[in-house]
Amino acid sequence: MFEYHGWITVRETAVDDDDDDRLRQIVDELQLRIAGMASPYLLDLRWMNGEPFIHLGGHSNHRSSPDVIGLFDHVATVAPGSYGLLHIRDDEDPGHENEVRVLRLARGAVTLHTEALLSPCIPKLEDRFTGKA
Hints:
Layout (H helix, E strand, L loop, with lengths): L1 E8 L10 H18 L4 E7 L2 E10 L7 H11 L4 E8 L9 E7 L2 E6 L6 H4 L9
Antiparallel strand pairs: 1-3, 1-4, 2-3, 4-5, 5-6
Protein name: Immunity protein 7
Pfam family, one: Imm7
InterPro entries: Imm7
């Protein structure tokens, strides 16, 4: 099972004074990339109060398309002022099957952390399966 929930505030630079034309170019390119991902889940880029935001969420049997982690890496490269979080639960991630992990996007870098508020999943989120009815 691969579950994810996240958001990104898209900014050209870490200075709160983006070049509006350049930011629109970046957002247009990101919109094309997102459209090409063909996600059956939540994957949305929209402007709110003059700023672009990406929202995403999904739940599939296995880590597969869309490549949401790749999207975070790409945004870090093309818009290094962007910031956001992606919470991931992947029961097929060796050594992390019982954790919710968090990708943090900040200042052009994506780092991976264990989410202490939701991990370990058993017992914080669920009871251990006993096989009893």
